[in-house]
Write a structure and sequence with these properties.
- This protein is 39% helix and 17% strand.
- The protein contains 11 helices and 11 strands.
- The chain has a 7-stranded parallel β-sheet with strand order 3-2-1-4-5-6-9, sandwiched between helices. A two-stranded parallel ribbon has the order 7-11.
- α8 runs antiparallel to α9.
- It is globular and about 50 Å long.
């Protein structure tokens, strides 16, 4: 059996995908800058060949936000090399809104996958539930105040485990070839509602503080984020404020034959696991 390559194999979706594939006896190769089975850097084409050796199927994602044309061209170039190396199936982690925005940073990647000439599946998840517990927003949750320019806008947060299950099915089952799945949770909620649920489950004060978009950009830049990246991230968050991408989609159910996981269930399990406990209590 040929290897299944997982880009970002130590990340939120990648490690979940790899774990599921390994538990079912599939040959998996995780690729990451650190901690993966192979050292991989999308900015360093010298690392691509070793990662692709003996690979028949690949899960693709791009690390970080890429406002520049050069940054957005990296994954299309990798797709071309992967196909030339014999990869016959590609599953791409994309994002909502690609169809409506010709300047969307993942537009070139989607186009490259669709035009690759091999089997492909595209996943477009909305904001991850796990952003509250594993990355971006965890610090704010632990400190009790999460500062985001989202206002009262609502979004149907999707569980990373649902994304991983859809990806595993797409990587291993022919029926997903040529499919595009919009992946969301079962209902849209605001960040304020989300932090309220976390506060209730943990017994701690956790609140959302709305900030003006320009203030959010300034804070990101002050924290070391490049200005163009800060503006791109702010635009994605103000899309929530403006009510864009608030629609609930049926991609999880279409792909897996079951409903998407509720945000409330994610909160209950995460609180029980102690991920929101004060650092000294973990």
């Amino acid at each position: 059996m040929q290897n299944i390559l997982i880009l970002g194999g130590t990340g939120k979706t990648g490690r979940r995908i790899a774990r599921r594939l390994k538990s079912s006896g599939r040959p998996v190769r995780t690729a990451s800058r650190t901690g993966g089975d192979v050292s991989f850097d999308l900015d360093d084409p010298a690392t691509w060949g070793p990662a692709l050796d003996g690979v028949g199927t690949a899960y693709l994602m791009t690390p970080g936000l890429q406002p520049s044309a050069e940054g957005q061209a990296r994954l299309p170039r990798f797709v071309a090399q992967a196909v030339a190396a014999g990869v016959g199936r590609l599953v791409l982690l994309s994002a909502p809104g690609v169809d409506a925005d010709d300047r969307h940073p993942l537009k070139p990647a989607e186009r490259a996958v669709r035009d690759s000439g091999v089997e492909w599946t595209i996943l477009r998840p909305t904001w991850f539930s796990q952003n509250f517990s594993e990355a971006f927003w965890l610090r704010g949750v632990l400190e009790g105040s999460l500062y985001l320019p989202t206002g009262d806008g609502r979004t149907p947060f999707v569980d990373a485990d649902d994304i991983a299950e859809v990806a595993v099915s797409a990587l291993t089952d022919d029926r997903h070839a040529g499919r595009l799945y919009e992946l969301t949770g079962p209902r849209a909620i605001s960040v304020g509602e989300a932090t309220g649920l976390i506060a209730e489950a943990t017994g701690r004060t956790v609140r959302h503080v709305d900030v003006a978009p320009e203030v959010f950009v300034e804070r990101q830049v002050a924290g070391g984020v490049p200005a163009d990246v800060a503006r791109l991230l702010t635009g994605l968050l103000t899309a929530v404020r403006d009510g864009r991408h608030a629609e609930v989609a049926d991609g999880v159910e279409r792909a897996l034959g079951r409903p998407a996981r509720r945000f409330e269930d994610y909160v209950t399990e995460t609180a029980a696991a102690g991920l929101w406990d004060p650092p000294g209590n973990r």
